[in-house]
Amino acid sequence: MTSATPATVAEQYAYLRTTVGVYTPGAALATLGGLERGEVLSRALARDSEYVEPDTARESLILDEDATVWDAVTHIELDDTSWLLAHSRDDLAGLLEKTVADAGVQDVEITGATDHVAIAFEGPKSWRIAADLLDFEISSLVLHGATTVTLPGDGGAEGVLARIGTTGEYGYLLIAPAGSGAAEWVAARAAELDGGPAGAEALLRARTEVRHPQIPAQSEGLTVREAGLEWLVSWGREDEFRGGEALAAAEEAGRGLITVLAEAGQAPAAGSTVEAGDRAIGTVHLVAPLAGTDQEIALALLDKPFDVPGLELTGRTADGTAVTLRTAASPVVIPQSWNERLGA
Question: Per the database record, which ranges form the GCVT N-terminal domain (predicted)?
């Protein structure tokens, strides 16, 4: 899809934060068609989909029956088709087909869209690529908006473009037929903007800085509340959905994830203990790469009320050395996109 991956995570991270980084998102695509597809979406997704408008994009959890996280998905709703992109699981179509059978609906068609590819491009210059695909002003494609587009090239193939991202920068998701050349075109345009491919480690750093959900790393072994994923669930729903009964019965969390910062070169070890004074209050859950930045960043699972910003705690490096950890509010960076106007 792109030229050779840059040698360092720092270069890839810089693409995301200063120009544009390109990557292949998710693990599986599926489409839903038919008049009863709304019933399937409602039963499968943890966020209520009853009043979702056409030409919109959003994210939701899919839960297991015990209310733990099965996966997160991106949901793009068009007039006659719903697209779902699973973030980490490759058996999305199978789950949807089981949902159809459990619901007893007939007028719905589930397709594992293996004939399509998803391409994501994010960064303060990413809108320049998206603008080339639109026949209207780029600023009119608002955050969480989606539209069909004609792809570059002689074939005139149709794709779907959504404005939705994961790093706090401008971000777009393009779904295109496999073999259409869309992935190669996006890569070439990114290179013209001094951008390039972004790998998993660079994305981990950029997403951790803005606390964008990273499944399964963020949710592994945790409840929805412990993992800080409440916004990907519609609470208080009275309709039936996967994991809903267990979610309603779940107790309030006694611990939660919080961003913690340390000096560069003093990364705490994942799984190591976090202390307040001489009291153990939690563990380091996820550690992001340094990526050429001047501070370490991690997510720590801490007992309440310690899961709040503004505290100085103690962690341990891989060799057991004590280091100071500062709990912080998110985001911990100011994305460049916040200061660059679309279309400028």
Answer: 30-235
This model's pTM is above 0.70: yes
Q: Is the omega angle on the peptide bond into residue 331 within 30 degrees of 0, that is, cis?
A: yes
Statement to judge: residues 54 and 153 lie in one domain? yes
d(CA 210, CA 212): 6
Is the previous residue joined to 289 through a cis bond, with omega within 30 degrees of 0? Answer: no
List, in order, residues 6 or more apart from 31 with CB less than 8 Å away.
81, 82, 83, 84, 109, 110, 111, 113
H/E element, 300? strand 295-303
Q: Which of 333, 285, 335 is nearest to 307 (CA)?
A: 285
Question: Nearest-CA neighbor of 131 among 161, 153, 176, 165?
Answer: 161
Distance in angstroms (rounded) separating the CA atoms of residues 261 and 33: 46
Pair 18, 103 in one domain: yes
Closest CA to 289 of 227, 193, 217: 217
**Distance separating alpha carbons of residues 308 and 230, to the nearest angstrom:** 16
pLDDT in tens, 149-184: 999 987 789 999 999 999 999 999 999 999 999 999
Residue where a domain stops, chosen among 200, 225, 252: 200
Q: Which domain holds residue 58?
A: 9-200
DSSP-derived letter for residue 211 is: T
Is 338 part of any domain?
no
> What whole-number distance in Å separates Cα of residue 132 and Cα of residue 109?
32
